[in-house]
Amino acid sequence: MSTTFCFSQTEINWWDLARIDYTEKFFPAYDQNFLYPEFSDHMKSLEGKKVAITGYFLNIDPSGKLFILSKNPMASCFFCGMGGPETAMELEFRSKPNFNTDDVLYVTGTLKLNADDVQHFNYILTDAVAQKMN
Description:
Elements: E1 10-11, H1 14-18, E2 20-27, E3 32-39, H2 41-46, E4 50-58, E5 67-70, E6 88-93, E7 104-113, E8 123-132
Parallel strand pairs: 1-4, 6-8
Antiparallel strand pairs: 2-3, 4-5, 4-7, 5-6, 7-8
């Protein structure tokens, strides 16, 4: 089966996402400091726009509600200490995906920058659609 994406989007890559600075910020709800992202002007200009990126699919949530696109495969992902928060993004799919961990995906969606909700990733793709590349 083949899927074609018919809408215009801006291609981004992991280098684009890596151009981010962090400062510590105290979050009273958790009574601790978290790294607060300061997004690059380039990424700010893309917020709310359709973007596309390729990465590794990670399905680490037993409830099946959280899906992640990672710069690295599961064995060397952000959660295993092999990168910072800029090496992964949260995916909010139009419909529940049927991919396996470490499938390489080409994903399109609307970019959302998240600086304040520590329950979610800094980068989120909403209304995401993906195509398996491998």
